[in-house]
Amino acid sequence: MEMRPLGKMTSALGLWIIIVLLLFGHATESSAHEPSSSALAQEQMHLHSVNFNIATTVSAQVDTKTIFSCYTYSVKNLIMAAWEILPRDKIPCIMAYRSDKNETKEINCTNERITWESRPDWNFTLQIDPVTIDDDGFYTCVLSAPDGNFQYVYQLSVLVPPEITLSMDGNGTTICEASAGKPAAQISWVSEGYCFSVNETHGNRTVTVKSICHWNGLNETKVTCFISHLTGNKTLSIELLPSCLNHSTLSSFYTSLCVPLSLITIVGVILIWKAICHRIYKFQRTRSIPNINTKEEEFYVNYMKSIYYGNESMN
Fold first, then answer.
1. Which of 97, 128, 159 is the last residue of a domain?
2. What are residue 296's phi and psi, to 5 degrees?
3. Is 126 in contact with 114 (CB distance < 8 Å)?
4. Whole domain around residue 198: which residue ranges?
5. Which one has a higher pLDDT value, 296 or 114?
6. What are the φ/ψ torsions at residue 60 (nearest 5 degrees)?
7. Domain count, the chain
8. Is 41 exposed, middle or buried (0-12, 13-18, 19+ CB in 10 A)?
9. Which of 29, 119, 260, 305 shows its CA 20 to 30 Å from the CA of 70?
10. What digits encode the pLDDT tens for the residues 198-257?
11. pLDDT at 35 over 50
């Protein structure tokens, strides 16, 4: 990493070093000479005017661990090392180490997740474990030595993966939603339909993105939603309902379906009518023809009776 001499920095860095010196009572250890809390607060407010254009941007995903290294080469005869932590919308915190006394001190540091990675007499690396969305901000390391004072600035951007959903309402409108992501997710579709997007920014700086689409007039049966985000990309697919299909296509389909159905209905009616007529004709014909077999049977019965009764009279 590049180290920058104090002579090329703003005067605010000088105020920063003064605060560190006051923290350790460099002039005297007597409490009578310690600065008041209000004086320290005023000194810290000046630190917000530091030019952070030279800051190195670092991204870390929420609920992971991240570290900030203070330097990459040895600083000879180090006097002190300190971290100034400027979270977004929060009070600055200072963590400092003085080498000649081998002691550390802190001011306004209440976040137990932000600590030295190891013993500061071994390593000046700062760690955050785990990272939360409130850790967005600037992290400045300052080293003080006889040959100069140096600083390095990090700007931390916390990434939050969005929650992804894909749904469809009863009208065939499809909604692809990336909820509470940081930064805002990017949404695209295959195949493309008639779409528009709505973004909602929440109080914790996360953003919900909704892409609302419909495919009326397009011959699509399945569509895919692509969600692009710094924490990873995702895809979701959904089958379109029949109401999403082309209206003219449906009309043609219904028309082509009605023609054969009509023909089948007409033929069915004709066949049924013919069957009824045939049964009526057969019934009437049966009634008009005398039953010959019945008459023969009656004749035979009468003949047998005459023979029987004739025999009886002879006896």
1. 159
2. -60, -40
3. yes
4. 163-244
5. 114
6. -140, 135
7. 3
8. middle
9. 29
10. 999 999 999 999 999 988 877 888 899 999 999 999 999 998 866 544 444 445 555 666
11. no
